[in-house]
Amino acid sequence: MIQHFSFKPMYSDELPGWVVTFFYERVRYKAAYEKDGDIRWIDGIPPNEENVKKMIHELMLFHVYE
To answer: Residue 50 to residues 12, 15, 26, 54: CA-CA distances in angstroms?
Structure first.
């Protein structure tokens, strides 16, 4: 389960793209969430990467695209 999920705009203007940070299995991760939904890892790749990506997509849909 992802904990302490946060996101902030990647760019200072209106271009879409976000930097997301979260904890997964007690380890902090950071990733770039691109406008097309692509996730590029910045600080390590979490175990169960595909499941984590699904959780991030769900959180972004809820918080950004609601």
So the answer is: 29, 26, 18, 6
Residue from 31, 20, 30 nearest 64 by CA: 20
- Assess whether pLDDT exceeds 70 at residue 65: no
Among candidate residues 19, 16, 24, 18, the one with its CA nearest the CA of residue 50: 24
Q: What integer pLDDT is reported at residue 49 of this predicted model?
A: 96
Confidence of residue 16 (pLDDT cuts 50, 70, 90): confident
More confident call, 64 vs 36: 36
Domain boundaries, the chain: 2-63
Sequence-distant (6+) residues with CB within 8 A of 57 are 37
- The span from the CA of 24 to the CA of 31, in Å, is 13
